[in-house]
Amino acid sequence: QGVQPVVRWGVRMRLICVVGLIIAGFAPTAVATANPSFWQRMFDPKAAALADAMRLGDQLLGRFPDNPRPSALARVYDHYRHMAATWPEEPIAHLRLAGIITHLMEVCTPSCATPKDRALALEALAHWQAYFDLAPGDERTFAAMFQRSILRTKVGGEQLALAAQDYRKLIALGDLGAYLGSPSVLHLNLAEVLMMDSSLDAAIDEYRVAVSLSSEPSSAYGLAVALDRAGYVDEARDVIRDLGKSALEEYKVSIDRGDT
After folding, report:
1. Which of helix, strand or coil describes residue 241?
2. Between the CA atoms of 193, 198, 200 and 205, what dihedral angle is there, to the nearest 10 degrees?
């Protein structure tokens, strides 16, 4: 029967996504905390209005943990959507809106299964692209691109190849283990995207890198799935056998708990 694949969009991935959201979208910025003086308001009313809008957005975000209902987050979404429409040349407006949409989808729906979900996801992707175009080299680029790659994976279809491009760009940036907690995460995520896109040989290569960087059973199990799908059944069984019964049982328990 072969090795059965496991779709892993559990707590581990959601936590990483939320951390990325905080870093990419909710981190305080100079424009968000600015308090323009009388003279600044007099000579640059546009900058003053933007600072006021950012401050209001920060206040709405600050109240959200005490009011975590989707309707509360929807108010934040409406605010930043208005900001992005009013100041389309400001990268922070697009960055915040893309992060809000992603978090809204995490709270309201776990996937991009409906047309409404897909429309929201594509809206977030468009605003991330606007941010990248307007602020190349910004220090928040990594976190934003990591979020975008996850959302592209969820959307699937033609977005899978673009998600793989994002992950390859992130890997090329160098040692990112400090941010993700493990340097294997990017290779593991890329491998899963490649397997979903039926690029099995490339997926196997990335799984092997992930296995070399981490002792977590999820990397080895993913490698076994890819090998099995590519027709290397005996090698897949060897990988599972090398894991050992206790590691495999621990991995199954982590899936049941939603930790993986």
Report:
1. helix
2. -30
10, 255 in Cβ contact below 8 A? Answer: yes
Q: What's the Cα-to-Cα distance from 200 to each of 98, 146, 206, 224, rounded to whole Å?
A: 31, 22, 10, 11
- Looking at residue 76, its pLDDT comes to 83
Amino acid (one-letter) located at 121: A
Q: Distances from the Cα of 8 to the Cαs of 153, 213, 254, in angstroms?
A: 12, 19, 10
Tell me the C-alpha distance between 168 and 66, whole Å. 38
pTM of the predicted model as reported, rounded to 2 decimal places = 0.74
Q: Which two tokens stand for residue 156?
A: 């699937």
Q: Give the CA distances from residue 159 to residues 23, 74, 156, 165, 196, in Å, rounded to whole numbers and listed in that order.
A: 24, 25, 5, 10, 11
What pLDDT is recorded for position 82?
92
* Residue 186 near residue 171, CB atoms below 8 Å: yes
**Cβ neighbours of residue 205 closer than 8 Å, sequence gap 6 or more:** none
pLDDT per residue over 50-103, tens digit each? 888 888 887 877 766 555 566 777 788 889 899 999 999 989 889 989 988 887
The mean of the pLDDT values for the chain is 76
The per-residue pLDDT for range 202-238, each reduced to its tens digit, is: 999 999 999 998 878 888 889 999 999 999 999 999 9
CA-CA distances (angstroms) from residue 59 to 22, 63, 66, 91, 114?
15, 6, 12, 20, 31
- The torsion angle over the Cα atoms of residues 171, 214, 10 and 28, rounded to 10 degrees, is -50
| Single-letter amino acid code for the residue at 19 | V
